[in-house]
Give the backbone structure.
Amino acid sequence: MEDPAIEKLAETQKGDAFQVLVATMLSAQTKDAVTLEASTRLFRLARTPRTIERLTVRTLERLIYPVSFYRNKARHVKETCRQLIVRFGGRVPTTMEELLTLPGVGRKTANLTLIVAHQSTSSICVDTHVHRISNRFGWVNTQTPEQTERALYDAVPRRWWPLLNLYLVTWGQNVCRPVYPRCGACAIEMLCPQVGVTRIGKS
Ligand code: SF4
């Protein structure tokens, strides 16, 4: 199975923390292929806080289109670059508390940046795939990604924390899809309680 966009990008950019942060900001509610193309277009032109901050919002919008909410994301990326320069000497912060002060950065973006860019072993990044599949597995019984993140710290052995996002996003994009999961073709069907699964897709 193909790696998710952020892992692919981190590999090609040798784990550059700034590019991981920006690509993760662009990825919210956007398909992986679109995120990858938009990030590549942007980084071809500018790849540091200083060079991106110099671009106009209009140029940023044009470069990252058609990611979802590209207008908001363009403004957030530019302002984040400015704050990285002014407050953090151009570097990406290494703590959740500091990352959350940047515009457009929520827990999902912060956790993925900590894991992929800063090799954190004490973070779990919960997106829609991790939230859905953790509930289908019966590991947690939660309503929101924030609740899932908190519950997973208790439910999952620590050594798996930084890997959960990579594994479950890949699984969710290919097998345990949001609608019509491919349970008939799933290698772990006999182990899975399939909590809340009502409609199964073709194998
Ligand atoms: S059996 Fe179905 S619900 Fe369980 S992990 Fe596989 S695809 Fe997902």
Remarks:
- The pocket of iron/sulfur cluster is lined by residues 136, 175-176, 181-183, 186, 188-189, 192, 194, 197 (CB under 6 Å).
- The chain has eleven helices and no strands.
- Residues 70-88 form the longest helix (19 residues).
- The mean pLDDT is 95.
